[in-house]
Design brief:
By secondary structure, the chain is of the alpha/beta class. The chain is built from 29 helices and 26 strands. It has an eight-stranded parallel beta sheet with strand order 17-18-19-20-21-22-24-26. A seven-stranded parallel beta sheet has the order 10-11-12-13-14-15-16. Strands 4-5-6-3-7 form a five-stranded parallel beta sheet, with helices on both faces. The protein is globular and about 85 Å long. Residues 101-131 and 166-174 have low confidence and may be disordered.
């Protein structure tokens, strides 16, 4: 595994490469040229390249990171400042584009025009964001000098290293763990149920062979055991191996500790060594190993334990399965892993999922580890401390072992109280203790995932994560890799799923996801120099290196000098002073929800790097100031629950062109004029059609990136079918749900023309039509047009009286609901084949004129129906 130079979850090489890419951007180069500092920007580029080359050399040398820690920290500070500077240039490029000013006119115009431009800049942004040529040139030169100085110091350190150190290969940062088939303890606590499940499966009928995922065989089946590090997966497998019935049931019992060495050759060699008890196969080719292995396992019922599997390489797994299928029918494989992707790769059966031990079992294990053979009852003064420590460990067996050994060394109250008040990751531990075990999971992540994970430490323990919220914050921080073939949200969702698969996140019973306290401790350990959380009852040291700050309770530490370096600030129950907004020059994520804000500061417009802003549940805010529109980089706006909000800037739609997500009440959406300018918008839950030009259907025309569900209301205000066509719903290829609502009765004939023109894209899955007063169905409601429709809801359509032709031919329809349709008399599905082949829910309510639902006798009707509700249909006979 590659060695990466890191500080607090910050990765030097990756970040410097990002800076090189930004500095090389054509728009930045053109901006520098027209502002008169192109030469200085050109000098910045080789300095970054030189640092990148040195970092690569340091990495390949395998030098100890501690030799570079101070220098890398300096580089981190300089690199962040360089990114802020380049992003500031990008901001002004974007601002000029929004204003429609041609850059060459500004650069070559009269001195009066130039002075006017600069004066406007100064009024808007203050002197700190001045684009006066001399000032800008000086800032770029100063930055280049800082980077050059760091590069020279790096070269000096490299030059004094012995030549052998510079040529040696990088060392793997972690020691691959080892295991064997014998358990380390004479008793296993709290896993009797799981052990019985595993043993029953092992002794199960040989005819019940579950197929390995993607591999067809009739020889062996595979059972995965999945859980986070330290959950007891290996111990459970060891006790299953130890069971006398299991020992007698299989001809061969083979144990292989896989770890990160997942190759067919290595697995084969380890199996042979386990059977022969000889270690003499290191240099053999796979062909020879295969022949030897077949000699030992052919026609024998074997039990193979593959402990600690990390790789999800399907190709290797299928080759290995093909190699061992010579065994006897009824052979079994148990795989232990931290990754659900591995589980799905090796087996189609449900894995054994190991969570924390229950409270009683864990306390027994904790007492065993903490007191050994002594009786805990003899130490009543330690009971409260012990209980508090045990609660912090959240049922982790390895954590009980780790902390227990430390506690057992000194059975006095002062020692136990010290441990109780300490963060677990600060307690001294051996390589096979809990934090090193969890850190191994972290080391297997790629660099993008590592920085996403370390960022999570800014949230409190037991925080319920929502995937969309966290992904949008990762985007704002620049953690999401930009892929042209995939939108950032989808890449971020892939990241999140990876964390779920690897047990970093676990599903919460009431929705959302939670992070195990020990995993959170790991994130805190990694990001200790980067992230800080302030709580009312907890003394916190504010380091100058802090970039992410959360203040849960208590006063905002105004004496902190690093606000201008912060990239994340999350406040709760703290109304920030206006002066704070002037200090947050580098902020990317700002969460001031539930802070009792009476108004939003005019200084908000100075936060030119802001990408994520949460103003939710500030009930007293009435106005968003005009300066709000200067947040040109803002991607996400959370403003739900600002009930007294009355006014937003009229130019919000025109200027905030990078907005991708707005989570707001319906009232807010109605206030947005020119929503058509927000072409990056990913969701538009509600659009209310008005007679105002800024709220006509043509506003939807260019919003081609819309995902999720779009609800269009007040369709009675549409003037004609041409206006409906202008919405171009057929081009909304990502839209999965559509609601069409008429809120008043006007011209039924016009409504028929309008709904006909509102043709959705064929990929639509959910459709709701409400308040429609036309008498006939739109032609696009035919099954061949919306062939992927899964849910159809029709309500309060008073004039609709046709028979919804061929509705039963919808091959993918799962739910059909019709209510309050007084003119509907008949439904029919006269056709060949099944009727509603996938329909599970049918709901008919308040259809007073419906007399019959006709069908052809002998047809297969509703083969999948699970729920049928019919209410207030008095004339329905058949």
């Amino acid at each position: 595994m590659a060695v990466a130079l890191t500080v607090g979850g910050w990765f030097a090489q990756a970040f410097i490469q990002t800076l090189i890419d930004k500095a090389s951007d054509k728009s930045i180069q053109l901006f520098a040229q027209r502002r008169g500092f192109a030469e200085d920007m050109e000098n910045l580029h080789p300095s970054l390249l030189e640092i990148q080359i040195i970092l690569d050399e340091v990495q390949s040398s395998g030098c100890n990171d501690t030799k570079w820690k101070t220098l890398i920290q300096e580089l981190k500070d300089a690199a962040y400042d360089a990114e802020d500077l380049i992003d500031e240039f990008q901001y002004h490029v974007l601002r000029q584009k929004i204003k429609g000013e041609e850059e060459d006119k500004v650069a070559t115009g009269s001195s009066g025009l130039s002075n006017m431009f600069y004066a406007a800049k100064k009024r808007l942004l203050g002197s700190s964001h001045s684009l006066e040529e001399d000032d800008t040139r000086a800032r770029v030169r100063k930055m280049q000098g800082r980077l050059e100085k760091i590069a020279n110091r790096m070269k000096s350190i490299m030059n004094v290293l012995p030549p052998n150190d510079r040529r040696k290969q990088p060392e793997v940062k972690f020691q691959a763990r080892e295991s064997c088939s014998s358990p380390a303890t004479d008793k296993m606590f709290g896993r009797d149920k799981e052990l019985n499940q595993v043993v029953d499966w092992l002794l199960g009928s040989a005819n019940q062979v579950e197929l390995a995922s993607g591999f067809v065989n009739n020889t062996f089946s595979v059972l995965p055991i999945v859980g986070i590090g330290g959950a007891g997966k290996t111990t459970l497998a060891q006790y299953a191996h130890k069971d006398n019935r299991v020992q007698e049931h299989f001809h061969l019992k083979i144990w292989v500790c896989v770890s990160n060495n997942f190759t067919v050759q290595r697995l084969s060699k380890s199996m042979i060594e386990s059977v022969t008890l000889k270690k003499e196969y290191d240099n053999m080719e796979l062909e020879c190993l295969q022949k030897i292995l077949h000699q030992h396992i052919a026609q024998k019922k074997f039990l193979l334990f593959l402990d600690d599997v990390w790789s999800d390489n399907k190709n290797i797994w299928h080759k290995f399965c093909a190699l061992i299928k010579v065994g006897a029918h009824g052979s079994k494989i148990i795989v232990t892993t931290r990754d659900m992707k591995v589980s799905k790769m090796v087996s189609l059966v449900e894995p054994i999922l190991l969570h924390g031990l229950d409270e009683v079992a864990f306390r027994q294990l904790f007492n065993k580890c903490s007191f050994g053979t002594l009786d805990p009852e003899d130490y009543p003064e330690l009971q409260d401390s012990g209980r508090n420590i045990a609660d912090k460990l959240k049922g982790s067996p390895l954590a009980a072992k780790t902390l227990g050994s430390v506690l057992q060394s000194d059975l006095c109250q002062q020692h136990w109280d010290t441990i109780m008040k300490s963060d677990i990751w600060k307690v001294k531990q051996d390589e096979d203790d809990i934090m090193p075990a969890l850190h191994l999971s972290y080391q297997y992540l790629n660099e993008n995932l590592k920085q996403c994970f370390s960022f999570c430490s800014v949230f409190p323990k037991d925080y319920v994560f929502e995937e969309a919220e966290l992904v949008r914050m990762w985007m704002a921080e620049g953690f999401i890799e930009d892929k042209n073939t995939k939108r950032m949200e989808d890449v971020g969702s892939d990241y999140f799923l990876e964390f779920v698969n690897r047990s970093f996140f676990q599903k919460f019973k009431f929705g959302g996801f939670v992070m195990h306290d020990l995993i959170h401790d790991l994130a805190e350990m990694i990001s200790a120099e980067d992230t800080c959380s302030i709580e009312k009852k907890r003394q916190t040291k504010m380091l100058s290196t802090i970039r992410h700050l959360r203040v849960k309770e208590g006063k905002l530490p105004l004496e902190f000098s690093g606000y201008d370096k912060l990239r994340t600030l999350m406040l709760r129950k703290n109304s920030p002073p206006n002066s704070l907004f002037e200090k947050l020059r580098s902020i990317r994520v700002l969460d001031v929800s539930r802070c009792d804000l009476q108004e939003l500061s005019e200084h908000i417009g100075k936060l030119i790097h802001l990408r994520y802003l949460d103003l939710s549940s500030n009930y007293e805010i009435k106005i968003l100031p005009d300066s709000f529109c200067h947040l040109h980089n803002l991607q996400t706006l959370e403003i739900l629950g600002c009930h007294k909000l009355e006014s937003i800037p009229q130019e919000l739609g025109k200027k905030m062109v990078n907005l991708r997500h707005i989570n707001a009440d319906n009232k807010f959406w109605v206030m947005i004029k020119d929503v058509r300018r927000l072409t990056n918008l990913q969701e538009l839950p509600t659009f209310s059609v008005q007679e105002d030009d800024g709220l006509k259907l043509v506003q939807l025309k260019d919003l081609t990136q819309l995902h999720g569900t779009l609800h269009i209301q007040n369709l009675e205000n549409v003037v004609d079918s041409k206006e409906a066509q202008d919405a171009e719903l057929k081009n909304k290829v990502h839209l999965k749900g559509l609601g069409l609502e008429w809120n008043d009765e006007k011209d039924a004939k016009l409504e028929e023309e309008v709904i006909e023109a509102l043709l959705p894209h064929e990929s639509l899955k959910r459709l709701k039509i409400e308040g429609y007063n036309g008498g006939r169905s739109p032609s696009w409601l035919m099954p061949k047009v919306l062939s992927n429709l899964e849910k159809l809801y029709l309500a309060n359509c008073k004039g609709w009286d046709d028979v919804l032709p061929f509705i039963g031919q919808r091959l993918h329809l799962i739910e059909l609901c019709m209510e309050r349709m007084p003119s509907l008399k008949q439904l029919s599905h006269e056709f060949e084949g099944k009727c509603f082949p996938k329909l599970k829910v049918l709901y008919l309510w308040s259809l007073p004129a419906l007399e019959e639902w006709s069908w052809t006798e002998g047809k297969n009707l509703f083969p999948c129906l699970r729920e049928l509700r019919v209410n207030d249909c008095p004339k329905l006979k058949r």
